[in-house]
Amino acid sequence: MPADTLPPVAILGAGSMGGAILQGIVASGLGGGVTVTNRTAAKADGLSGLDGVTSVALESDPGANGDAAASADVVLIGVKPVMVPDLLREIAPRLRPGTVVVSIAAGVTIATFEGILGEGIPVLRSMPNTPALVGRAVTGLAAGSTASADDVALVRRLFETVGTVVEVPEAQIDALSTISGSGPAYVYLLMEELTKAAIGKGFAPSEARTMVEQTFIGAAYLLEATGEDPAELRRRVTSPKGTTERAIAVLQEATLDAVFAKATDAALARAKELAAGG
């Protein structure tokens, strides 16, 4: 068994994000046994065939969350944010001292977790993004007041099964969500608009989609493969006095820097509203 094998993990509420993390753990081969809970048997059955996974439905076993939490060294909380406090109160008496509890619920503070779980339970707050579904996530990770370096390293290893991890103080988690959390949507919007431009130049929708999607995918692969700065790769495409230079000039005149700053500021303001219950 690999030295970096993960200890027993429980994922309480294995929805889209919890399910993606589950798939990452299984695919990595590092799982030391994972128990997942869902409300319905239909959802639970869909995960029951995975290697090393015990999938339980709350409708058939109402105490499954507590049982799963009691048997795990790391507990991921993946239910909807409004459900988190009740779930924490349910599992708190069942947690063994030192069990690491990790939030993947947006907007719920570490203070809320620590206030309900009490001393002896280290807490971390995470913010993965949707490319976790294909093992390419960026996950922000913030440690609570009693989480040790070993706790952080363990949770980091868990999230690295679905991508890259960035450690930040909790005060930066909402700001991170406006960049990597919402970021895929910004990319898709750019793709939508460039596709419209292609259709406007006479290409069939299928042709336009192929050109745009594969251009974005190829550009991202090239960036990753070379390790170059995006600005340098842009310069290499932009021949002096050429067609790309003319197009880039128009885009720069649109003050994209200010637009992205304004957009991410708006997202951050909304994150603060949600955290305040707005």
Automatic annotation (TrEMBL):
Keyword Transit peptide among UniProt keywords: no
Described purpose of this protein according to its UniProt entry: Catalyzes the reduction of 1-pyrroline-5-carboxylate (PCA) to L-proline.
NADP found in the keyword field: yes
Pathway: Amino-acid biosynthesis; L-proline biosynthesis; L-proline from L-glutamate 5-semialdehyde: step 1/1
Pyrroline-5-carboxylate reductase catalytic N-terminal domain ranges (all copies): 9-107
Sequence ranges assigned to domain Pyrroline-5-carboxylate reductase dimerisation in this UniProt record: 170-274
Classification via Pfam families: F420_oxidored (PF03807), P5CR_dimer (PF14748)
Catalysed reaction equations from the record: L-proline + NAD(+) = (S)-1-pyrroline-5-carboxylate + NADH + 2 H(+); L-proline + NADP(+) = (S)-1-pyrroline-5-carboxylate + NADPH + 2 H(+)
Localization, UniProt: Cytoplasm
Protein name: Pyrroline-5-carboxylate reductase
